[in-house]
């Protein structure tokens, strides 16, 4: 007598049905619990885990082969299949053809999974691009988004069947989800299994599909959500919204939605990590004599001193005036790069004062004449001018 697996899950208890429950009883219990614990109806995290267990229990108990494993004390979803021992369901058993030999060597990869495919499967993840301004990525924002995804069909609650109807066992494969063929080769008889083309490997058909979802158990719709963007996110980062993606076929657990951040270019500031950079032009006289500048940061105004004698390319650093750190406290810095502007045109008085200033500093300033400088004289010599 086989000893029950001590870690096997009580799939009957999860659905709240007895061990001699019929297929219709199991299906009704699943639909009732699915409506109660589906993430679109009940966002509580515990309800989401409960919904996963409900899907797993229905997947097992709606499959005759897996249900037999449970009745023998095993767990078909446990690592190794939780089979009932050699020769039994899920056990090693004797080889009956080439397919079994390939399964033994390659773990069933040669011909895919044996038995019918479950109609209830997890949904796919979705991704959405969201453009934000620098102020929004720096300080965070609650941004409304619109996403087109597959959601649970409310008409059939994911079952895919019309009201009052049920799935039917596929007559072509007898509910196995696959058909076998025997070929004679030099190795002898080779038995191969292929997914049933009538039921697409599900083992069941839908004689009367749901008129809303056409048997898929889900419909596409546009939903409006609000995503909370934390302060300090950078361009290219993704925000994960759990189970806000595509609902799976048959009302399976929804995938995740990833919101990808794209930061718009700012008119004044450029960003490197959590630090900000900007360029400010100051007149030559202000750089020489010193001055004060009022810098408008992302969230305030700061007065900074430009020391006398500041050279072109100098940088002023304003601590903690950059972008807040995404993880932890504090902020980056703001770097102000100074461009010293030299006047391009001077009137006679301005030029005279600058030359007098240069003389007081002992600086020789060669005066440009109409004949020009050295290169002008060289050009005149080549052209034959005296």
From TrEMBL:
Primary location recorded for the protein, binned into one broad class: cytoplasm
Record-annotated CR-type domain positions: 140-222
Residue ranges of every copy of the J domain listed in the record: 10-74
Keyword Ligase: no
One Gene Ontology term of the molecular function aspect: unfolded protein binding
Entry keywords, A to Z: Chaperone, Cytoplasm, DNA replication, Metal-binding, Repeat, Stress response, Zinc, Zinc-finger
SMART domains (alphabetical): DnaJ (SM00271)
Locations listed in the record: Cytoplasm
CXXCXGXG motif repeats, residue ranges: 153-160, 170-177, 196-203, 210-217
Cited Gene3D superfamilies: DnaJ domain, Heat shock protein DnaJ, cysteine-rich domain, Urease metallochaperone UreE, N-terminal domain
Cofactor details (free text): Binds 2 Zn(2+) ions per monomer.
Short name of one Pfam family: DnaJ
Sequence similarity: Belongs to the DnaJ family.
Comment field on protein domains: The J domain is necessary and sufficient to stimulate DnaK ATPase activity. Zinc center 1 plays an important role in the autonomous, DnaK-independent chaperone activity of DnaJ. Zinc center 2 is essential for interaction with DnaK and for DnaJ activity.
Assembly and binders: Homodimer.
Protein's recorded name: Chaperone protein DnaJ
Gene for this chain: dnaJ
């Amino acid at each position: 007598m086989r000893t029950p697996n001590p870690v096997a899950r009580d799939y009957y208890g999860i659905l709240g049905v007895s061990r001699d429950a019929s297929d219709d009883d199991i299906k009704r219990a699943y639909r009732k619990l699915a409506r109660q614990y589906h993430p679109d109806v009940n966002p509580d995290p515990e309800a989401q885990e409960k919904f996963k267990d409900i899907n797993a229990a229905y997947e097992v108990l709606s499959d005759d082969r897996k249900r037999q494993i449970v009745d023998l004390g095993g767990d078909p979803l446990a690592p190794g299949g939780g089979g009932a021992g050699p020769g039994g369901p899920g056990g090693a058993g004797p080889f009956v053809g080439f397919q079994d030999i390939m399964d033994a060597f390659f773990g069933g990869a040669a011909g895919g999974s044996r038995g019918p495919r479950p109609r209830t499967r997890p949904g796919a993840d979705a991704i959405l691009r969201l453009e934000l301004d620098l102020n929004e990525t720096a300080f965070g924002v609650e941004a409304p988004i619109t996403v087109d995804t597959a959601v649970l069909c409310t008409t059939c609650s994911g079952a895919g069947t019309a009201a009052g109807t049920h799935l039917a066992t596929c007559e072509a494969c007898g509910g196995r989800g696959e058909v076998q063929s025997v070929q004679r080769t030099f190795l002898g008889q080779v038995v191969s299994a292929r997914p049933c083309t009538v039921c697409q490997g599900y083992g069941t058909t839908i004689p009367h599909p749901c008129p809303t979802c056409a048997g898929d158990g889900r419909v596409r719709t546009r939903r409006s959500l609000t995503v909370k963007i934390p302060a300090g996110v950078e361009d290219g980062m993704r925000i994960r919204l759990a189970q806000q993606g595509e609902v799976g076929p048959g009302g399976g657990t929804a995938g995740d939605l990833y919101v990808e951040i794209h930061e718009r270019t700012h008119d004044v500031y450029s960003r490197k990590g959590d630090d900000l950079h900007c360029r400010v032009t100051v007149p030559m006289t202000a750089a020489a004599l010193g001055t004060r500048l009022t810098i408008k940061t992302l969230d305030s105004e700061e007065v900074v001193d430009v020391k006398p004698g500041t050279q072109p390319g100098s940088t002023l650093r304003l601590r903690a005036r950059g972008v807040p750190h995404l993880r932890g406290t504090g902020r980056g810095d703001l770097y102000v790069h100074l461009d010293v502007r030299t006047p391009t045109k001077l009137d006679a008085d301005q030029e005279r004062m600058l030359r007098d200033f240069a003389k007081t500093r002992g600086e020789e300033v060669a005066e440009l004449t109409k004949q020009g400088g050295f290169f002008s004289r060289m050009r005149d010599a080549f052209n034959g001018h005296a």
